[in-house]
Amino acid sequence: MVTVMVRDETATGRAVDSWPLTGLPERISARELVRLRVREEVARFNAAQPRHFRGLVQPTDTEATLNGYRVAPGRRLDWEAQADRACAAFSHNGFLLLIGDHQVDDLDEEIDLRSDPDVAFVRLVALVGG
């Protein structure tokens, strides 16, 4: 089993959050890596119940704010629904997945985490009027 450091970055390369993701297999598809990342972030949110969710993609029925996505008090998120949204967002260029210095282009791509344990998710923001 492998531990990787997951990092969220802005499009300019500024890290906004990072945490270890443990217990991963040595080889994993990009899709499964995205899904496991989302499962972890939703589990942390559901356990702590903060006012804002700072995840990879916006949950339904939430408001985007500077601090993340405002979630109604007491609401628990469904990790599988969030993971499906994340996979759809990847397919529509909502974020980039970087493994080391390699950009993953396909969710079915297999990743060797032994050789590249550095994982970055780069959120892309749509340009206003573009």
For the record, the CATH class is: Alpha Beta
In CATH, the architecture is: Roll
Question: Would you tell me the overall average pLDDT?
Answer: 92
Number of domains: 1
Instruction: Describe the strand arrangement of the main beta sheet, using strand numbers.
Output: 2-1-10-7-8
| CATH topology tier name | Ubiquitin-like (UB roll)
Helix content: 10-25%
Strand percentage lies at: 35-45%
Question: How would a crystallographer describe the biggest sheet?
Answer: 5 strands, mixed
Distance between the termini: 43 Å
Give the class from helix and strand content and strand pairing: alpha+beta
Number of helices: 2
* Helix-strand sequence: EEEHEEEHEEEE
Low-confidence stretches: none
Tell me the number of strands. 10
How many whole angstroms does the radius of gyration measure? Answer: 14 Å
What would the principal axes of the Cα set say about the shape? Answer: globular
How would you characterize this protein structure?
- The model has no long low-confidence stretch (mean pLDDT 92).
- The chain has one domain: Roll (Ubiquitin-like (UB roll)), CATH 3.10.20.
- It is globular, with a radius of gyration of 14 Å.
- 25% of the residues lie in helices and 35% in strands.
- It contains two helices and ten strands, in the order βββαβββαββββ.
- The protein has helices spanning 30-48, 79-91, and strands at 2-9, 15-24, 27-29, 52-53, 63-65, 68-70, 95-99, 102-104, 110-112, 118-123.
- By secondary structure, it is α+β, with helices and mostly antiparallel strands.
